[in-house]
Amino acid sequence: MPITRPTKSINEIPFSVLDLAPIVQGGTPSQSFQHSIELAQLTEKLGFKRYWLAEHHNMPGIASSATSLVIGHVAAHTSTIRVGSGGIMLPNHSPLVIAEQFGTLEAMFPGRIDLGLGRAPGTDQRTAHALRGANYTNGADFPEQLEQLQAYFQGSEAVRAIPGEGANIPIWLLGSSGFSARLSAQLGMPFAFASHFSPENTLPALKLYYENFQPSDDYNEPYAMVAVNVIAADTDEEAEFLATSIKQSFLNMMRNTPSQLQPPVKNLDELMSPYEKAILEKQLGSTIIGNPINVKKKLQSFLEETKADEIMVSTMVYDHNARLYSHQLVAEIIGLMEEE
Predict the structure, then answer these.
(1) For a pLDDT cut of 70, what percent of the chain falls above it?
(2) Does the pLDDT of residue 340 top 60, yes or no?
(3) What is the 3-state secondary structure (H, E, C) of 111-164?
(4) Which CATH number does the domain 15-228+291-334 belong to among 3.40.50.2300, 3.20.20.30, 3.40.47.10, 3.10.20.340?
(5) Which of these, 76, 101, 74, lies nearest to 88 by C-alpha position?
(6) Distances (CA, A) of 15 to 250, 277, 305
(7) Could you tell me the pTM of the whole model?
(8) pLDDT tens for each residue of 39-74
(9) What are residue 60's phi and psi, to 5 degrees?
């Protein structure tokens, strides 16, 4: 059954940015971080609401593994846009460490820091064991970790998080399935869904969240943000060409051969089997690719299906200038800036 919430226009909701700090083929992490600064500064100027970075490990094409550090770097080079994590994988860390790190970020950049939390490792199982060591957990204790983290911010633990205690940092739960949807609903927290890699679970998870939401001190109503891949260009052909880079990344992950972000190719079909193509199309089923007119239609349709309160765009494009331009086109599409 469809989600029953009021339908809004894409011109009526905030738009935000998800950055994986991609390392392109032949590039370096230093270049990736410079590109992140340029994208953050542009999207701040264009009027996007928040700029989130994601924690991934053992990924040759993703530079944001030390997520808290990169958040501080981006926040230091911007002035108004909210900066946060999409997300911190809490089972990889001690809740006290995260309370201190984000308490420090909030002290440095008051009123601009978001803390999005996930329970997956953000990597393969071998790397997860390397991260978590003797304290390895499969994420089943995520609710308890979350409760402890909140207690550090509230100052109700015997051990004090300084900085961190008393910090008013919005906490989001992130999900790609129903677990965090249900938990965030029970706790009255905002929820962010990863439709950019889990499109099939998007509507069931959001429906679960909307229908089970319990009001809290911070939120009287559910607030859902949905992340989606968006690649906009002047023509459909150019956008589809640019999109072959992210498709190659997913293809390499499927093959367990993760790589740096590859240059686009003219005929991706030549590089994969029909079976791989079917899996790829399924995993990137919500991806929005095209010229401004078609992207606008697809974004509006996506919003009408999800009934989201906010949309977060992820644009994994090999050419940095094309990536910047895609965000500029999205800003024009949703009315953040006037078309020239």
Answers:
(1) 95
(2) no
(3) CCEEEEEECCCCCCHHHHHHHHHHHCCCCCCHHHHHHHHHHHHHCCCCCCCCCC
(4) 3.20.20.30
(5) 101
(6) 24, 30, 16
(7) 0.94
(8) 999 999 999 999 999 999 999 999 999 999 999 999
(9) -60, -20
